[in-house]
Amino acid sequence: MTQTMNPLSPAANNSDAGVDVAALGELLLGKWADVRLAARALAGNPELHKIEGLTHTEHRKRVFQQLGILVQQNGVHRAFPTRLGGSDDHGGNVAGFEELVIADPSLQIKGGVQWGLFGSAVLHLGNQEHQDKWLPGIMNLDIPGSFAMTEIGHGSDVASIATTATYDASSQEFVINTPFAAAWKEYIGNAAVDGIAAVVFAQLITKGVNHGVHAFYVDLRDPKTKEFLPGIQGRDDNIKGGLNGIDNGRLAFDNVHIPRTNLLNRYGDVAPDGSYSSPIASPGRRFFTMLGTLVQGRVSLNGAAVAASKVALKIAIQYATERRQFNAASDTEEVVLLDYQRHQRRLLPLLATTYAAAFAHEDLLVKFNDVFSGAHDTDEDRQDLETLAAAYKSLTTWHALETLQECREACGGAGFMAENRFTSLRADLDVYATFEGDNTVLLQLVAKRLLADYSKEFRNLDFGVLARFVAGAAADLTLNKTGLRQVAQFVSDTGSAQKSAKALKDAGTQHQMLADRVQTMVAEVAGALKEAAKQPKDKGAQIFNDHQNDLIEAARAHAELLQWESFTAALGRISDPGTKRVMTRLRDLFGLSLIEKHLDWYLMNGRISMLRARTLAPYINRVLSKLRPHALDLVDAFGYGPEHLRATIATGIERERQDEARDYYRKLRASSDGPIDEKILIQRAKTAAKK
Amino acid sequence: MTQTMNPLSPAANNSDAGVDVAALGELLLGKWADVRLAARALAGNPELHKIEGLTHTEHRKRVFQQLGILVQQNGVHRAFPTRLGGSDDHGGNVAGFEELVIADPSLQIKGGVQWGLFGSAVLHLGNQEHQDKWLPGIMNLDIPGSFAMTEIGHGSDVASIATTATYDASSQEFVINTPFAAAWKEYIGNAAVDGIAAVVFAQLITKGVNHGVHAFYVDLRDPKTKEFLPGIQGRDDNIKGGLNGIDNGRLAFDNVHIPRTNLLNRYGDVAPDGSYSSPIASPGRRFFTMLGTLVQGRVSLNGAAVAASKVALKIAIQYATERRQFNAASDTEEVVLLDYQRHQRRLLPLLATTYAAAFAHEDLLVKFNDVFSGAHDTDEDRQDLETLAAAYKSLTTWHALETLQECREACGGAGFMAENRFTSLRADLDVYATFEGDNTVLLQLVAKRLLADYSKEFRNLDFGVLARFVAGAAADLTLNKTGLRQVAQFVSDTGSAQKSAKALKDAGTQHQMLADRVQTMVAEVAGALKEAAKQPKDKGAQIFNDHQNDLIEAARAHAELLQWESFTAALGRISDPGTKRVMTRLRDLFGLSLIEKHLDWYLMNGRISMLRARTLAPYINRVLSKLRPHALDLVDAFGYGPEHLRATIATGIERERQDEARDYYRKLRASSDGPIDEKILIQRAKTAAKK
Question: Which EC class is the enzyme in (chains A, B) (predicted)?
């Protein structure tokens, strides 16, 4: 429990019971607490830490060696089959994996390429023979490999990749080709230096038919000489904005022959005579099923982004409780940064969002484990999982970048020093916003799903009900347009400001407002797009494009609602009353900040009155000052030690310096040696003149 | 003139006359066009370019050598006196200096430390003797030096720095001391390696009186051995988030004796006997006058942030007109990124803001030159200049970071490659948001000025008018609170959506809305703070703190209004009708985007009706699609060549790749060899079954 004197708002200090930091920490560790703690112990090992200022070649070498340490320490095999030395634990695997980001994001992502993408593709897309043949070498790093999906010309639109794998029945081989420059595989981890094999995604062509994207196991380099095998070319991507411990590069294939059996054939196979077969008849569904097995990449990026946000907030909030600047409240005492309203405004809503993202991630991880363990593995489960992963990954990776930047700026020049972590983490996490699916594209996938659910609901209703629903929606709109609802609400709001703020504090009200917004936005877009479906493709696309921004915003609103629900559900798992009170307030801050962020929508759609809207910001400011005394507890509950934070300004050094400075001035004032201030002399002279 | 086929919005293509790129380019070059062009020619020199991936020690060496090239090329002496080889050209000096950011921001800032801070301090705070003694060596780099103002414990609060310079009349020397750890000079450029001298800011103490912060010329290192002189200690700041070509470090002083005459004594002097004198009686005013001479740092950061934003937008928009992704509108043609509504939403408002910032910067530069040339150099001119510089520097440096990040994400994985500039520029410019005054602190300075102007207005009015004003304001508020004004506006809005959007297109309406918001916000804060002035300091500070966020937002609103005014004034300098039409639309986009950003405020303060507010986003979308065909012209007018852009994706390579890919598929479709898509086979089978 932390109680800090706040000269700017003394009343806020003593009003609350404190937080049970240990219990809250347990709650955050979640279902895979043991794995997470083991992974954190591993991530505390200095041999795994990022060293700032290495050249990219040195950094690459270091990270490759670190992968070996992960293998030795059994840190990365949880998802693989028990028969091969793994433990078939999918949720635990991701929980452990994502914690590695705090050692070095390059290490996390390089490990992700090797085991999460390359190894997972063999595991999920291959048969048992493939697994037995290649997984042991992949697991122990004898086969460093690449996941060659993205091409220069096609990133998030995987279905349109142009690499071909054409079956030659005479030799019973596939022939891999890169038909033009835009089809080069690009940004491929392990491609520039280390990879001796790859899972290559290509259009499978046999007997003159293109069966769409499939995955092929392809040897890239001679394991001894590390020279490319015949027909394979590469280019080093060189320096990137971050993650420079990974050797990204390009790959191209010129008539590269591989055995027929190198097709990872779980969802589609070619017989020796060239005839194609698949357990999934629809090429579209087959494609999405194959890609769906790779959802764990998005899940683990989500978790890593949460972890990085936690580290950043712990560092920045620790510093903000020690650092003093400007003597606003007294002639001799400077104010601690976190006592400034603006500083609270900058950091505490990010803290609330980080908690929301953390609880939502835990729920996502459980869902992921349910699907991949086979416990709940229907088509709908998988679709839910993919939608959730896409929604959360977008919001959380952007949130991490915002948090890292705000923390860096909130720490001033100290925040810019590499030794304080923010800039380095931010540079590395930057690409999380566009890889494993560009966030903007992912949100459109989420929106598509929302629209599909919306029209499914229509399909289950008879036409009369549908007609009524539409009429109701129109009436609703009319009501808002005339401003009647707003005026009505306004009339009921004319009590004290306190009263109208109180209504927004109610969880039911928050939920209703957030949910209403999602439903209304989806319904509005759906209404506008009904036309699009009837039009020729180009006209339809134009109508769709005219609502692209609305669609993306609806998806974001949906994801925010789900995060709010996860946060609220987590409150039910807290038993300590003090903790529950503070955490409920933090959830309120999250909900209210969302409403404030979208306040224009609520106002122009008649969902909130002008008067009530005007009470929101001052009310949020009061919530902030009530949370202020618990800020340090709330970041301590993240459970990261000095070996994870590794930031000079999080060591208490600032408090020591501030204390030393205050002692110096205190002694100076007490002694007769100290110089007197010219301003005071002038003041005295003025006073004397008046007398 | 660029006309691009847009399959998603074909109607938008032919409606506008084009932009006269060359004339618009001239306008942007502004008053110091020749200097700017010369500086760009210099910045195009490969010897001055940043090389990615150097270690910080290599980068530091390279940048120090580059400073020598700047000296040889006469690129950096424009502000210095003609008698010493300069040209007394302050505006031109900054115009040229800020363009160096496109070569390497480290070069710009290291040059800024040497000539803009260290040299400027000697120039503006010293006497002619000081200038003649030190400036030649500073100008030709014989004396690399530091500007030692910031301390670990005090960044933006310069008045509170703790380093002391105590006069010893017996030896006629000042004795410089660092009394505790927090008083170490920190983040000081040239301190870690190169600096052999420094201007050190310290509390001047003589005869037992502290006369506040003054500047002292102090030798740091032996020029030959580069060893610190006795009593001086340093520490290397090592790796930073960016600007690693600069050797930032810490400095501490232990009884370092310097001659009395090393006090830069323009605004305050100590006679041999220790008696203090100053041409400015008030210690507060003296302090602000001294610091005010250093305003050019903020001015030039503002210009550099504009330049970096221009480079980023040229690269990202070039790429967005070539890159294709997803075949939304046809089965065979993929859509160019910039034809997507969301992509327009991401990039074009940033483009509009960059133009606004560019025009505002030009006006600032003229103001700066007026003051420093002595043409308009009253106290009020200086205050205006400082307020403007603080306001613009905050908005523009944040804008540059936002622009660089949005451009990087809009280019996907390619945006993350260092060779495409975004990540590197962003890392370097990150610290612009907190150095030369933390943006958050600077906005509070702006707000203080707004409040002072507000109460000055009160001082000039008699009490009756004051009373009326307050009553009027209260009545105004009541009107809004009852929603009457809104309902009234709403009633007049009930025409077509077109009609209500049209009103917002009017420049007068935009101006009125932006100005009204500033006035209202300032008046509201002023009303709330009236209490604060009457209270004891701690209570007053608490009231002030409760409105800190509102204050900062009022300052931001003020700066946005000024940018809008600069943009609008610039329209008057355009004669070509096509250019004027497009640029007016871009100004509208800027104004409307500001109103959209603050739409919650306009709604809850009854300044816009719900109905009109709902037409805003669709109207902005229409403006975007009308600007879309001119986007490339608008970035081409920035006038940066390949030697400045140095980004692979801005070379046209993407168009070549896309063309090659489309040719390949076109030929494949035309030939009988191409594989047929499984989906088409299934479609055919279904059709056949139906027959």
Answer: oxidoreductase
CB-based contact A209:A203 (threshold 8 Å): no
Cα(A316)–Cα(A411) distance, rounded to whole angstroms?
A: 6
CB of B274 within 8 Å of a chain A CB? The answer is no
CB-CB contact of A586 with A355 (8 Å) = yes
Tell me whether B487 touches chain A (CB under 8 Å). Answer: yes
One of A99, A436, A553, A560 is an active-site residue; which one?
A436
Nearest Cα residue in chain B from A612: B604
Interface contact A549-B342, CB threshold 8 A: yes
* Token pair belonging to B213: 């912060």
Both tokens assigned to A120? 């997972």
As given in the structure block, the two tokens for residue B281 are 């009686």
At the second CATH level, the architecture of A147-283 is Beta Barrel (2.40)
Give the domain B147-282 fold: Butyryl-CoA Dehydrogenase, subunit A; domain 2 (2.40.110)
Nearest to A654 by CA among B180, B140, B345: B180
- Using CB atoms, which residue from A211, A431, A549 is nearest to B621? A549
**Residue B334 per-residue DSSP state:** P
Q: What is the pLDDT of residue B502?
A: 66
Which of A488-492, A581-585, B358-362 comes out lowest in average pLDDT?
A: A488-492
Q: Is B52 on the interface with A (CB under 8 A)?
A: yes
Separation of alpha carbons A406 and A317, rounded Å: 11
Identify whether the C-beta of residue B437 lies closer than 8 Å to the C-beta of residue A413.
no
Q: What CATH code is assigned to B23-117+294-433?
A: 1.20.140.10
**The pLDDT of residue B472:** 33
| CB contacts < 8 A (A, B) | 342
For CATH 1.20.140.10, the residue range(s) in chain B are 23-117+294-433
CA–CA distance, A84 with A131 (Å, rounded to integer): 9
Of B121, B233, B133, nearest in space to B176 by CA: B233
* Cα–Cα distance measured from residue A496 to residue A492, given in angstroms and rounded to the nearest whole number: 11
**Tens digits of per-residue pLDDT, A343-380?**
999 999 999 999 999 999 999 999 999 999 999 999 88
- The reported pLDDT for the residue numbered B503 is 80
Q: Rounded to an integer, what distance in angstroms lies between the CA atom of residue B543 and that of residue B526?
A: 11
Burial of B370 (0-12, 13-18, 19+ CB in 10 A): middle
Q: Which CATH architecture is the domain A465-636 placed in?
A: Up-down Bundle (1.20)
Q: According to the model, what pLDDT value does residue B326 have?
A: 80
Could you identify the residue written with the tokens 């937002």?
Answer: B553
Cβ of A549 within 8 Å of Cβ of B604? The answer is: no
Place of tokens 């946005």: B560
Do A643 and B175 meet the contact criterion of CB atoms below 8 Å apart? no
| Cβ within 8 Å, pair A209-B681 | yes
Chain A residues touching residue B150 (CB < 8 angstroms): 413
Distance CA B13, CA B3 (A): 7
With contact defined as beta carbons under 8 Å apart, do A592 and A616 qualify? yes
Model pTM greater than 0.90?
yes
Closest-approach residue (CA) in chain A for B158:
A326
| Alpha-carbon gap: B424 to the closest alpha carbon of chain A (Å) | 7
Q: Report, as an integer, the average pLDDT of A226-234.
A: 98
Which residue is it, tokens 């005579």? A273
In chain A, residues with a C-beta closer than 8 Å to the C-beta of B342 are 440, 548-549, 552
The dihedral region occupied by B483, where left means phi > 0, alpha psi between -120 and 50, and beta the remainder, is: left
Q: What is the 3-state secondary structure (H, E, C) of B667-685?
A: HHHHCCCCCEEHHHHHHHH
DSSP state, residue A221: B
Does B538 sit within 8 Å of A330, measured CB to CB?
yes
Give CATH 1.20.140.10 domain extents, chain A. 465-636
In B571-681 the beta strands, taken as DSSP E runs, fall at 676-677
pLDDT at B7: 54
